């Protein structure tokens, strides 16, 4: 019986606080929706400003423009990469022939300007003309259509 009472009390408290009430001078007063919306907007604005500052604080060194990028096939998921890590097509990693493992790269799609930051964890691609292999998640984040398997990208080193 005591367990049920505790659960009911916690449920009531959660209901009161999730419905927009605030405690002021020991009286329950409804917080006006415009104040709640203004607070949420200011939180979003601060988050956006922080992410822009973080992006501006990073320095990028151009490695190659007009590079050919492709993505890994799903059959490689779960296998070990050349660095020894387990490959996951849902992460932001890449394969490059020369960059040291752990190097962070910014890959920008030249057609639409979208970019992602990936970490080099594997060697390859070993197909002539291809510069970098991205995970499927990284590739699809910058691709303008979901049907192509290759892109022209700019590769920059994150410093």
From TrEMBL:
One of its GO terms (biological process) is peptidoglycan metabolic process. It holds the Pfam family DPBB_1. Its EC number is 4.2.2.-. Gene3D superfamilies: RlpA-like domain. Keywords: Cell wall biogenesis/degradation, Lipoprotein, Lyase, Signal. It is an enzyme of class 4 (lyase). Residues 1-23 form the signal peptide. GO terms for molecular function: lytic endotransglycosylase activity. It comes from the Bacteria. Residues 66-153 form the RlpA-like protein double-psi beta-barrel domain. Belongs to the RlpA family. Lytic transglycosylase with a strong preference for naked glycan strands that lack stem peptides. NCBIfam families: rlpA. This is Probable endolytic peptidoglycan transglycosylase RlpA. It comes from Flavobacterium lindanitolerans. The lineage of its organism: Bacteria, Pseudomonadati, Bacteroidota, Flavobacteriia, Flavobacteriales. The gene is rlpA.
